[in-house]
Amino acid sequence: MRNIESTRELLADWTKKIPESEIRRLLKNKTKYYLAGGLPGNLPTKVFPKILEELSEYYEEDEKRVINEFQYGMTAGAKGLREVLAERLHTKDKISCISGKQDWEKMLITTGSQQATYLVLDILVNPGDIVITPSPAYLGFVTAVVKIGGTVVTAPTDELGLIPEFVEDTIVKAEKELGKKVKLLYVVSDSDNPKGTTLPYERRKALYDLAEKYNIFILEDEAYKEMQFTERIPPIKSLDKDNEWVIYVSSTSKEAAPLRIGYSLLPEHLHLEAEKSKGYIDLCTPTLTQRVAEIYYAKYIDSYLPEIVQKYKTQKDVAFKALQETFPEGDYTNPTGGFFIWWQAPGEKAYSFDIGKFNQDVLLPNDVLVVPGAAFYPPVGHSYDLETRTIIPLKIIKGGMRIGFSFLKPELLDEGVRKLGELLTKHV
Ligand SMILES: Cc1ncc(COP(=O)(O)O)c(C=O)c1O
């Protein structure tokens, strides 16, 4: 029998460079006050059995119909679901490069939106190519860039998200100093993960102008768009009238978690390449879940969403109030939607205080868990430094943390955030 060490040598290089995701590692800890992973705590639980019942009536005793419709499907997704989503993007999201359900072929269905972002990196990024992300950014994206061989350069953010003038400076200086092309700018326009920030319209427009000016694709990740507590701002994709520069990716995972379906709208030539790449990864997304999603988005979503979103808003209000009343001095966001609040220690402590260690040594023994700031950075990369206005080795806000309010019921959430505040006050 070979031992593990000698087998490890046979593995691909990336397996040695990329660590296990911090969130998957943390998920193994079960704590009473679970403020870590972004698990949806409010789901339309009754609707899915109802849809399955409708489906079973429709298919009852018609074996041929079942065999025809629940086969391997098209790699880019089932027509019915793509029609429903194309219509929704046109009417609800004001995206004009798609004119409604007749443009269904422009939609790409994936197995989770994580697959779509991976496909985009797969078809765009050559070794060393630069991808600009917010600092901090969704870890499932930043680490995937490194896995594919790209170079992450993080750009500064404030309480509204990316700051266009510094994004522009990052583009110019990263290309000059690293000698590679900036290929992609990653943006979560609505209620970013991990900061919960929502980009104002003027910033969306300014980022779109940068994409046009520098010939850079924007990957707009709209995972939290249905989870907004205030009126929606049109996505950056709505500015991309000729479907040229914005790769729009969204997910059913926050409002309909059991389905694991993502959907995207890409510039045509990118769509074809992404579809080709998907074909080599999973052949197609399961047809049964696509059918359930089609019915949910066609008939039910808009009657279920308001109540669900209201529940998340109540949870956010509870967590935010507890934070304000118990936390020590620091900077924090007040999200207008989504699942997360970001808190970071003040001034220099944002870079020196180690929340990872605090999580392990202090929070876990007290039955509390958050995700430490360092998790939202790639294993290697660069940063745009606000003080020197230069590109420097990766600068990590390890004195920051993501507080997830999506999972716990209000009472427990209140207790948990207060406990976190008391422990922080003692240790920061
Ligand atoms: C910003 C963001 N994008 C994408 C994803 C992945 O979504 P999916 O479950 O559709 O793969 C997540 C999941 O947490 C996320 O927070």
Automatic annotation (TrEMBL):
GO terms for molecular function: pyridoxal phosphate binding; transaminase activity. GO terms for biological process: alpha-amino acid metabolic process. Keywords: Aminotransferase, Pyridoxal phosphate, Transferase. Residues 47-377 form the Aminotransferase class I/classII large domain. Its cofactor is pyridoxal 5'-phosphate. This is PLP-dependent aminotransferase family protein.
